[in-house]
Specification:
The protein has 176 residues and is α+β, with helices and mostly antiparallel strands. It has eight helices and eight strands; from the N terminus they run βααββαααββαβααββ. The strands form three sheets. A three-stranded antiparallel beta sheet has the order 1-3-2. The chain has a three-stranded antiparallel beta sheet with strand order 6-8-7. Strands 4-5 form a two-stranded antiparallel ribbon. The longest helix has 18 residues. The mean pLDDT is 90.
């Protein structure tokens, strides 16, 4: 029913089948061992299932990624791009699951390689200075506060950084 999903969430499948937890676990374990099912994080899928975009959709996805890469630190509004290119939330979710896109919030998304680069640079600055302000990160990338706040809030959610008053500090054990 959802060809763009990486699979079905394990808990959703367990709920739909109504099997007792131990039986469900045993059945899944056996099907994975046989190669019928594959586990990808919290998702289960048929082993042969892969997310594929048709030619038209693949072209629109490449246009989306191209637009996001044009000004990597100040990308266009994701909802505007989605409307212009005729893409829906399911396509965006598939790109996130594939690791091609990082969605910072409802309106800001970055290409994954841009996100990784930004995180590495923010972490390096934090290791050098101990703490950073929004303005310092804004200046680091030459972008606006809007994008920097989205990035820093996402990094907080990912437990990479922590907000302390008006500054961000590195969380313990960040391996970037």
């Amino acid at each position: 029913r959802h060809p763009l999903r990486a699979g079905m969430p394990r808990e959703e499948l367990k709920s739909r089948l109504g099997f007792p937890p131990r039986l469900f676990g045993a059945v899944v374990q056996r099907l994975v061992a046989e190669g019928t099912l594959a586990e990808t994080g919290p998702h289960l899928r048929l082993a042969e299932h892969t997310v594929r975009f048709g030619p038209d959709l693949a072209e629109r996805v490449e246009r989306l990624l191209g637009e996001l890469g044009r000004e990597p630190y100040a990308p266009p509004s994701l909802p505007d791009l989605m409307a212009t290119l005729g893409l829906d939330e399911e396509v965006i979710a598939a790109l996130v699951e594939q690791g091609r896109l990082v969605r910072l919030n409802e309106s800001v998304a970055l290409r994954s390689e841009v996100y990784r680069e930004m995180v590495e640079r923010v972490v390096a600055l934090l290791r050098e200075k101990g703490q950073v302000t929004v303005a310092e990160v804004r200046d680091l990338f030459g972008t606006s506060r809007k994008y920097v706040l989205a990035l820093l809030e996402y990094m907080d959610q990912q437990h990479l950084t922590r907000r302390v008053g008006d500054v961000r500090v590195l969380r313990e054990r960040v391996g970037v």
